[in-house]
Amino acid sequence: MMLILKNCSNKKKVLLLLATVCLFTVIACKHESSSTIDDFIGKEIVFPDSLSVIKNDTLQQQNKKFLNTGNKKVIHLFKADCGKCINSFNQLIQFFNELEGNFDCLFFVYTSNYKFFKTHVYPQLNTNFYLILNKNHCFEKNNKLEGTYNLFNTFIVNANNKIEYIGNPINSKNERGEFINHLILNNE
After folding, report:
1. Distance separating alpha carbons of residues 121 and 114, to the nearest angstrom
2. What is this structure's pTM?
3. d(Cα 79, Cα 43) in Å, to the nearest integer?
């Protein structure tokens, strides 16, 4: 590589460097795009024994037994360090607040700076749903969902904690209809 760079002009060196970076980016992202939504339908979700629930500005340790309601659950993986994600999250909360049915919403919040989240982001979130701190992406790791964040971050699990539907009701009317169908009309 050094021999190639030594014999090139600065413009060619920059182009060669950019091509190399692009190649490594494509190789690094290849694993993430190899999964499909169908690979996860029917997969059982396992909740950690102890969960850090964010309630009234404080973290409260709770046993996972509070999740055993017998209801379907909407699970959303939320990156609280992302402005666009916060806006989408608030739209998601509004959508689920408008639905009337027997389902629970669990929002797994990932943040690299909890203090910043607590003082700047949390006050912007208007929700009574469960916000659960997702330290170091443990939820994804425990359920072997690493690398799938861009594939999906909102899904429905049935009363047996198996993934039933994956989508995002904020993206389209069809997705909103599917969520209504799974949560309200077809709630078994």
Report:
1. 10
2. 0.75
3. 23
pLDDT at residue 28 in the model: 35
| 35-185 maps to CATH 3.40.30.10 | yes
CA dist 31 and 28 (Å) reads 7
Size (the chain), residues: 188
pLDDT of 118-148, one tens digit each?
888 888 887 888 889 888 888 888 888 766 6
Report d(CA 188, CA 182) in Å as an integer: 9
- Render pLDDT for 40-92 as a digit per residue (tens, 0 to 9): 899 999 988 778 888 777 888 888 887 888 899 999 998 888 888 888 888 99
Report the Cα–Cα distance between both ends of the chain, in Å, rounded: 61
Alpha helices in 31-156 (DSSP H): 83-98, 114-116, 138-142
Instruction: Confirm if 169 and 147 have CB atoms less than 8 A apart.
Output: no
In this structure, what token pair is assigned to residue 183?
A: 């949560």
Tokens of 47: 């909740």
76 near 105, Cβ under 8 Å?
yes
Average pLDDT, the chain: 78
Rounded Cα–Cα distance for residues 86 and 138 (Å): 20
Which CA distances in Å does 69 have to 38, 140, 144, 149, 188?
26, 22, 24, 26, 13
Q: Half-sphere exposure (CA, 13 Å, Cβ side) for 101?
A: 22
